[in-house]
Amino acid sequence: MTETLDFQIFTQTWKIALQDCADAQSLEDIRLQLLGKTGLITLQLKELGKLSPDLRREQGALLNAARDELTQCLANRKVVLEQQGLAERLRSETLDVTLPARPHKSGKIHLFTKVIQDIHTYFCDLGFQTIEGPEVEDEHHNFDALNFQSHHPARHEHDTFYLKDMPGWLLRTHTSTTQIRTLKLQQPPLRIISTGRVYRSDDLDATHTPMFHQLEGLVLEPGIHIGHLKGCLTDFCRHFFNNKDLQVRFRPSFFPFTEPSMEVDILYTNTKGEKKWLEVLGSGMVHPNVLRHCSIDAEVVQGFAFGIGVERLVMLKYGLTDIRQLYHSDQRWLDHYGQGC
Ligand code: DAH
Fold it and tell me: Which amino acids does the record list as binding Mg(2+) (predicted)?
Protein backbone atom coordinates (compact mmCIF):
# COMPACT_ATOMS: atom_id res chain seq x y z
CA MET A 1 0.00 0.00 0.00
CA THR A 2 1.33 3.41 -0.87
CA GLU A 3 1.39 5.41 2.26
CA THR A 4 0.77 8.51 0.25
CA LEU A 5 -2.61 7.29 -1.05
CA ASP A 6 -5.04 10.07 -0.31
CA PHE A 7 -8.34 8.44 0.50
CA GLN A 8 -10.25 11.66 0.09
CA ILE A 9 -8.99 12.20 -3.45
CA PHE A 10 -9.46 8.50 -4.21
CA THR A 11 -13.07 8.55 -3.01
CA GLN A 12 -13.89 11.83 -4.76
CA THR A 13 -12.44 10.64 -8.08
CA TRP A 14 -14.49 7.48 -8.09
CA LYS A 15 -17.61 9.31 -6.94
CA ILE A 16 -17.30 11.54 -10.01
CA ALA A 17 -16.80 8.46 -12.19
CA LEU A 18 -19.97 7.01 -10.70
CA GLN A 19 -21.96 10.18 -11.37
CA ASP A 20 -20.87 10.04 -15.02
CA CYS A 21 -21.74 6.42 -15.36
CA ALA A 22 -24.71 6.16 -17.73
CA ASP A 23 -25.73 2.51 -17.77
CA ALA A 24 -25.84 -0.66 -15.71
CA GLN A 25 -22.86 -2.22 -17.50
CA SER A 26 -20.49 0.71 -16.82
CA LEU A 27 -21.65 0.68 -13.21
CA GLU A 28 -20.81 -2.98 -12.90
CA ASP A 29 -17.41 -2.35 -14.49
CA ILE A 30 -16.65 0.25 -11.82
CA ARG A 31 -17.86 -2.06 -9.04
CA LEU A 32 -15.46 -4.74 -10.28
CA GLN A 33 -12.58 -2.26 -10.59
CA LEU A 34 -13.08 -1.27 -6.95
CA LEU A 35 -14.53 -4.24 -5.13
CA GLY A 36 -14.03 -7.22 -7.45
CA LYS A 37 -11.55 -9.99 -6.55
CA THR A 38 -8.68 -7.96 -7.92
CA GLY A 39 -10.37 -4.58 -7.38
CA LEU A 40 -8.39 -1.63 -6.02
CA ILE A 41 -10.04 -1.61 -2.59
CA THR A 42 -9.89 -5.39 -2.27
CA LEU A 43 -6.14 -5.37 -2.98
CA GLN A 44 -5.54 -2.49 -0.56
CA LEU A 45 -7.41 -4.39 2.14
CA LYS A 46 -5.18 -7.41 1.56
CA GLU A 47 -2.06 -5.23 1.88
CA LEU A 48 -3.10 -3.97 5.33
CA GLY A 49 -1.62 -7.04 7.00
CA LYS A 50 1.83 -5.98 5.96
CA LEU A 51 1.66 -2.73 7.89
CA SER A 52 2.65 -2.02 11.47
CA PRO A 53 -0.28 -2.29 13.90
CA ASP A 54 -0.62 1.46 14.33
CA LEU A 55 -0.47 2.22 10.68
CA ARG A 56 -2.80 -0.70 9.96
CA ARG A 57 -5.41 0.67 12.34
CA GLU A 58 -5.20 4.14 10.87
CA GLN A 59 -5.10 3.07 7.20
CA GLY A 60 -7.71 0.37 7.82
CA ALA A 61 -10.20 2.85 9.20
CA LEU A 62 -9.68 5.20 6.25
CA LEU A 63 -9.90 2.37 3.73
CA ASN A 64 -13.09 0.95 5.26
CA ALA A 65 -14.66 4.38 5.29
CA ALA A 66 -13.78 4.84 1.61
CA ARG A 67 -15.17 1.38 0.79
CA ASP A 68 -18.42 2.04 2.65
CA GLU A 69 -18.89 5.41 1.02
CA LEU A 70 -18.24 4.10 -2.48
CA THR A 71 -20.45 1.04 -1.89
CA GLN A 72 -23.25 3.38 -0.87
CA CYS A 73 -22.64 5.56 -3.96
CA LEU A 74 -22.73 2.50 -6.19
CA ALA A 75 -26.07 1.45 -4.72
CA ASN A 76 -27.49 4.97 -5.06
CA ARG A 77 -26.37 5.25 -8.67
CA LYS A 78 -27.88 1.86 -9.41
CA VAL A 79 -31.27 3.02 -8.14
CA VAL A 80 -31.04 6.22 -10.19
CA LEU A 81 -30.11 4.32 -13.38
CA GLU A 82 -32.94 1.84 -12.86
CA GLN A 83 -35.43 4.63 -12.42
CA GLN A 84 -34.13 6.39 -15.52
CA GLY A 85 -34.40 3.14 -17.49
CA LEU A 86 -37.95 2.58 -16.34
CA ALA A 87 -38.94 6.15 -17.20
CA GLU A 88 -37.39 5.73 -20.64
CA ARG A 89 -39.30 2.47 -21.25
CA LEU A 90 -42.56 3.97 -20.11
CA ARG A 91 -41.98 6.85 -22.51
CA SER A 92 -41.00 4.74 -25.53
CA GLU A 93 -43.34 1.78 -25.01
CA THR A 94 -46.57 3.66 -24.63
CA LEU A 95 -49.63 1.73 -25.63
CA ASP A 96 -52.37 3.50 -27.48
CA VAL A 97 -55.44 1.67 -26.26
CA THR A 98 -57.62 3.71 -28.61
CA LEU A 99 -56.08 2.12 -31.74
CA PRO A 100 -58.49 -0.17 -33.62
CA ALA A 101 -57.79 -3.90 -33.16
CA ARG A 102 -55.90 -5.70 -35.94
CA PRO A 103 -58.24 -7.98 -37.87
CA HIS A 104 -58.07 -11.40 -36.26
CA LYS A 105 -57.07 -14.07 -38.77
CA SER A 106 -57.38 -17.66 -37.71
CA GLY A 107 -56.61 -20.74 -39.77
CA LYS A 108 -59.28 -22.91 -41.32
CA ILE A 109 -59.62 -26.58 -42.03
CA HIS A 110 -59.26 -27.50 -45.70
CA LEU A 111 -62.59 -28.41 -47.23
CA PHE A 112 -61.25 -31.80 -48.22
CA THR A 113 -60.00 -32.63 -44.72
CA LYS A 114 -63.30 -31.50 -43.24
CA VAL A 115 -65.29 -33.74 -45.56
CA ILE A 116 -63.15 -36.75 -44.66
CA GLN A 117 -63.53 -35.96 -40.95
CA ASP A 118 -67.31 -35.71 -41.34
CA ILE A 119 -67.56 -39.00 -43.24
CA HIS A 120 -65.43 -40.71 -40.59
CA THR A 121 -67.62 -39.31 -37.83
CA TYR A 122 -70.70 -40.59 -39.64
CA PHE A 123 -69.37 -44.14 -39.98
CA CYS A 124 -67.74 -44.23 -36.54
CA ASP A 125 -71.15 -43.43 -35.04
CA LEU A 126 -72.34 -46.63 -36.74
CA GLY A 127 -69.60 -48.65 -35.03
CA PHE A 128 -67.02 -48.56 -37.82
CA GLN A 129 -63.35 -48.52 -36.91
CA THR A 130 -60.92 -46.38 -38.96
CA ILE A 131 -57.73 -48.03 -40.20
CA GLU A 132 -54.83 -47.09 -42.46
CA GLY A 133 -52.80 -48.99 -45.00
CA PRO A 134 -49.54 -48.45 -46.88
CA GLU A 135 -49.44 -46.56 -50.17
CA VAL A 136 -46.59 -48.70 -51.49
CA GLU A 137 -48.10 -52.14 -51.93
CA ASP A 138 -47.32 -55.50 -53.48
CA GLU A 139 -49.32 -57.17 -56.24
CA HIS A 140 -50.66 -59.69 -53.78
CA HIS A 141 -52.55 -57.14 -51.67
CA ASN A 142 -53.45 -54.86 -54.56
CA PHE A 143 -54.64 -57.57 -56.98
CA ASP A 144 -54.23 -61.30 -56.24
CA ALA A 145 -55.88 -61.48 -52.83
CA LEU A 146 -58.68 -59.30 -54.19
CA ASN A 147 -59.48 -61.92 -56.80
CA PHE A 148 -58.10 -60.00 -59.81
CA GLN A 149 -57.34 -62.48 -62.60
CA SER A 150 -53.91 -62.24 -64.18
CA HIS A 151 -55.42 -60.75 -67.37
CA HIS A 152 -57.36 -57.95 -65.63
CA PRO A 153 -56.63 -54.67 -67.47
CA ALA A 154 -55.93 -52.71 -64.27
CA ARG A 155 -52.76 -54.74 -63.86
CA HIS A 156 -51.26 -53.29 -66.99
CA GLU A 157 -48.69 -50.59 -66.74
CA HIS A 158 -51.16 -48.20 -68.30
CA ASP A 159 -53.12 -47.82 -65.06
CA THR A 160 -50.65 -48.81 -62.42
CA PHE A 161 -47.45 -47.15 -61.28
CA TYR A 162 -45.05 -50.06 -60.80
CA LEU A 163 -41.89 -49.35 -58.83
CA LYS A 164 -38.95 -49.40 -61.19
CA ASP A 165 -36.38 -51.20 -59.09
CA MET A 166 -38.73 -53.33 -57.02
CA PRO A 167 -40.41 -56.02 -59.13
CA GLY A 168 -43.91 -56.85 -57.89
CA TRP A 169 -44.25 -53.57 -55.96
CA LEU A 170 -46.47 -50.67 -56.92
CA LEU A 171 -48.31 -47.59 -55.70
CA ARG A 172 -51.70 -48.89 -54.62
CA THR A 173 -54.39 -48.23 -57.20
CA HIS A 174 -57.22 -48.45 -54.68
CA THR A 175 -57.85 -48.63 -50.95
CA SER A 176 -59.42 -52.11 -51.23
CA THR A 177 -55.94 -53.36 -50.21
CA THR A 178 -56.87 -52.41 -46.65
CA GLN A 179 -59.59 -55.09 -46.69
CA ILE A 180 -56.93 -57.76 -47.08
CA ARG A 181 -54.53 -56.19 -44.59
CA THR A 182 -57.29 -56.00 -41.97
CA LEU A 183 -58.60 -59.52 -42.56
CA LYS A 184 -55.13 -60.94 -42.10
CA LEU A 185 -54.93 -59.36 -38.66
CA GLN A 186 -58.50 -59.29 -37.43
CA GLN A 187 -61.25 -61.86 -37.49
CA PRO A 188 -64.89 -60.90 -38.15
CA PRO A 189 -67.20 -59.53 -36.94
CA LEU A 190 -65.80 -56.20 -38.07
CA ARG A 191 -66.76 -52.87 -39.58
CA ILE A 192 -63.94 -50.76 -40.94
CA ILE A 193 -63.40 -47.68 -43.05
CA SER A 194 -60.09 -46.57 -44.45
CA THR A 195 -59.28 -43.36 -46.30
CA GLY A 196 -56.08 -42.61 -48.14
CA ARG A 197 -54.20 -41.72 -51.29
CA VAL A 198 -54.29 -43.96 -54.33
CA TYR A 199 -52.42 -43.63 -57.62
CA ARG A 200 -53.22 -44.26 -61.26
CA SER A 201 -51.39 -43.03 -64.29
CA ASP A 202 -54.27 -40.81 -65.34
CA ASP A 203 -53.64 -37.54 -67.13
CA LEU A 204 -54.03 -34.37 -65.16
CA ASP A 205 -57.20 -32.59 -66.26
CA ALA A 206 -60.23 -30.95 -64.66
CA THR A 207 -61.58 -34.22 -63.29
CA HIS A 208 -58.50 -36.45 -63.00
CA THR A 209 -55.24 -36.42 -61.08
CA PRO A 210 -52.67 -39.23 -60.93
CA MET A 211 -53.12 -39.16 -57.16
CA PHE A 212 -56.54 -39.05 -55.58
CA HIS A 213 -58.27 -40.29 -52.44
CA GLN A 214 -60.56 -43.21 -51.81
CA LEU A 215 -62.58 -44.23 -48.83
CA GLU A 216 -62.99 -47.96 -48.38
CA GLY A 217 -65.63 -49.60 -46.24
CA LEU A 218 -65.99 -53.20 -45.17
CA VAL A 219 -68.63 -54.90 -43.02
CA LEU A 220 -68.27 -58.60 -42.20
CA GLU A 221 -70.68 -60.22 -39.80
CA PRO A 222 -72.75 -63.38 -39.82
CA GLY A 223 -76.14 -62.70 -41.40
CA ILE A 224 -75.18 -59.57 -43.38
CA HIS A 225 -77.05 -59.40 -46.67
CA ILE A 226 -77.53 -57.05 -49.59
CA GLY A 227 -80.35 -55.24 -47.77
CA HIS A 228 -77.79 -54.01 -45.20
CA LEU A 229 -75.57 -52.76 -48.01
CA LYS A 230 -78.40 -50.84 -49.66
CA GLY A 231 -79.67 -49.39 -46.40
CA CYS A 232 -76.24 -48.35 -45.20
CA LEU A 233 -75.19 -46.66 -48.45
CA THR A 234 -78.57 -45.02 -49.13
CA ASP A 235 -78.53 -43.50 -45.64
CA PHE A 236 -74.95 -42.39 -46.11
CA CYS A 237 -75.70 -40.61 -49.42
CA ARG A 238 -78.74 -38.88 -47.94
CA HIS A 239 -76.75 -37.77 -44.92
CA PHE A 240 -73.78 -36.62 -46.99
CA PHE A 241 -75.82 -34.59 -49.45
CA ASN A 242 -78.01 -33.36 -46.66
CA ASN A 243 -81.19 -34.44 -48.40
CA LYS A 244 -83.40 -37.03 -46.72
CA ASP A 245 -85.40 -37.53 -49.93
CA LEU A 246 -82.36 -37.99 -52.19
CA GLN A 247 -83.02 -40.69 -54.78
CA VAL A 248 -80.36 -43.41 -54.77
CA ARG A 249 -80.05 -46.13 -57.42
CA PHE A 250 -78.10 -49.39 -57.38
CA ARG A 251 -76.87 -50.43 -60.81
CA PRO A 252 -75.26 -53.82 -61.58
CA SER A 253 -71.54 -53.61 -62.22
CA PHE A 254 -68.37 -55.66 -61.94
CA PHE A 255 -65.56 -55.67 -59.43
CA PRO A 256 -63.41 -58.78 -59.03
CA PHE A 257 -63.63 -58.67 -55.23
CA THR A 258 -67.43 -58.44 -54.92
CA GLU A 259 -70.29 -60.59 -56.15
CA PRO A 260 -72.78 -59.19 -56.93
CA SER A 261 -71.25 -55.76 -57.56
CA MET A 262 -73.12 -52.48 -57.86
CA GLU A 263 -72.45 -48.89 -58.72
CA VAL A 264 -74.40 -46.44 -56.61
CA ASP A 265 -75.91 -43.43 -58.39
CA ILE A 266 -77.73 -40.42 -57.02
CA LEU A 267 -80.31 -38.30 -58.81
CA TYR A 268 -78.53 -34.99 -58.95
CA THR A 269 -80.04 -31.63 -59.84
CA ASN A 270 -77.52 -29.29 -61.43
CA THR A 271 -77.52 -25.50 -61.19
CA LYS A 272 -79.77 -25.25 -64.26
CA GLY A 273 -82.34 -27.42 -62.51
CA GLU A 274 -81.65 -30.43 -64.76
CA LYS A 275 -81.80 -33.86 -63.12
CA LYS A 276 -79.16 -36.47 -63.90
CA TRP A 277 -78.13 -39.82 -62.45
CA LEU A 278 -74.54 -39.55 -61.26
CA GLU A 279 -72.33 -42.38 -60.08
CA VAL A 280 -70.94 -41.75 -56.60
CA LEU A 281 -69.45 -45.02 -55.40
CA GLY A 282 -68.81 -48.71 -56.02
CA SER A 283 -70.04 -51.51 -53.79
CA GLY A 284 -70.86 -55.18 -53.54
CA MET A 285 -71.09 -58.31 -51.41
CA VAL A 286 -67.59 -59.53 -50.55
CA HIS A 287 -66.54 -62.29 -52.97
CA PRO A 288 -66.06 -65.71 -51.29
CA ASN A 289 -62.63 -65.97 -52.93
CA VAL A 290 -61.49 -62.87 -51.02
CA LEU A 291 -62.65 -64.44 -47.75
CA ARG A 292 -60.92 -67.72 -48.64
CA HIS A 293 -57.66 -65.90 -49.33
CA CYS A 294 -57.84 -64.62 -45.77
CA SER A 295 -58.80 -68.01 -44.30
CA ILE A 296 -62.34 -66.96 -43.41
CA ASP A 297 -65.22 -69.42 -43.80
CA ALA A 298 -67.48 -67.86 -46.45
CA GLU A 299 -70.32 -70.19 -45.38
CA VAL A 300 -70.43 -68.56 -41.95
CA VAL A 301 -69.55 -64.93 -42.51
CA GLN A 302 -70.86 -62.61 -45.19
CA GLY A 303 -70.42 -58.95 -45.73
CA PHE A 304 -70.37 -55.99 -48.02
CA ALA A 305 -67.76 -53.52 -49.14
CA PHE A 306 -67.78 -50.12 -50.78
CA GLY A 307 -65.31 -47.70 -52.27
CA ILE A 308 -65.81 -43.97 -52.62
CA GLY A 309 -63.79 -41.50 -54.69
CA VAL A 310 -63.53 -38.68 -52.16
CA GLU A 311 -62.61 -35.89 -54.60
CA ARG A 312 -65.63 -36.67 -56.75
CA LEU A 313 -67.94 -36.57 -53.74
CA VAL A 314 -66.53 -33.25 -52.54
CA MET A 315 -66.80 -31.73 -56.03
CA LEU A 316 -70.41 -32.80 -56.35
CA LYS A 317 -71.44 -31.52 -52.95
CA TYR A 318 -69.71 -28.14 -53.26
CA GLY A 319 -70.24 -27.59 -56.98
CA LEU A 320 -66.53 -27.59 -57.87
CA THR A 321 -65.73 -27.94 -61.54
CA ASP A 322 -61.97 -28.43 -61.39
CA ILE A 323 -60.35 -31.07 -59.17
CA ARG A 324 -57.08 -29.12 -59.19
CA GLN A 325 -58.66 -26.42 -57.02
CA LEU A 326 -58.44 -28.89 -54.15
CA TYR A 327 -54.65 -29.03 -54.36
CA HIS A 328 -53.58 -25.57 -55.51
CA SER A 329 -53.49 -23.98 -52.05
CA ASP A 330 -54.72 -20.71 -53.53
CA GLN A 331 -55.22 -18.50 -50.47
CA ARG A 332 -58.41 -16.94 -51.86
CA TRP A 333 -59.90 -20.37 -52.49
CA LEU A 334 -58.81 -21.59 -49.06
CA ASP A 335 -60.36 -18.54 -47.38
CA HIS A 336 -63.61 -19.09 -49.23
CA TYR A 337 -63.97 -22.84 -48.87
CA GLY A 338 -62.04 -23.33 -45.59
CA GLN A 339 -64.16 -24.63 -42.75
CA GLY A 340 -64.29 -23.66 -39.09
CA CYS A 341 -62.82 -26.03 -36.53
N1 DAH B 1 -61.69 -50.49 -55.53
C2 DAH B 1 -62.69 -49.97 -56.43
C3 DAH B 1 -62.06 -48.98 -57.39
O4 DAH B 1 -60.98 -48.55 -57.15
C5 DAH B 1 -63.79 -49.29 -55.67
C6 DAH B 1 -64.63 -50.29 -54.96
C7 DAH B 1 -65.71 -50.87 -55.59
C8 DAH B 1 -64.33 -50.66 -53.66
C9 DAH B 1 -66.49 -51.80 -54.96
C10 DAH B 1 -65.10 -51.63 -53.01
C11 DAH B 1 -66.20 -52.18 -53.69
O12 DAH B 1 -64.86 -52.04 -51.77
O13 DAH B 1 -66.97 -53.10 -53.04
O14 DAH B 1 -62.66 -48.61 -58.34
Answer: 259
The finding on whether 216 has its CB within 6 A of some atom of ligand 1 is yes
CATH number among 3.40.50.800, 3.30.110.70, 3.30.565.10, 3.30.930.10, domain 111-337:
3.30.930.10
282-316 residue pLDDT tens = 999 999 999 999 999 999 999 999 999 999 999 99
| 282 CA to centre of ligand 1 in angstroms | 5
Q: How far is CA 298 from CA 1, 188, 290, in A?
A: 106, 11, 9
Q: 263 a known binding residue?
A: no
CA distances from 304 to 61, 221, 234 (A): 102, 9, 14
Kindly state if the Cβ of 307 falls inside 6 Å of ligand 1: yes
R_g over Cα of the chain: 41
Ligand 1 atom 5: the closest Cα is on which residue? 307
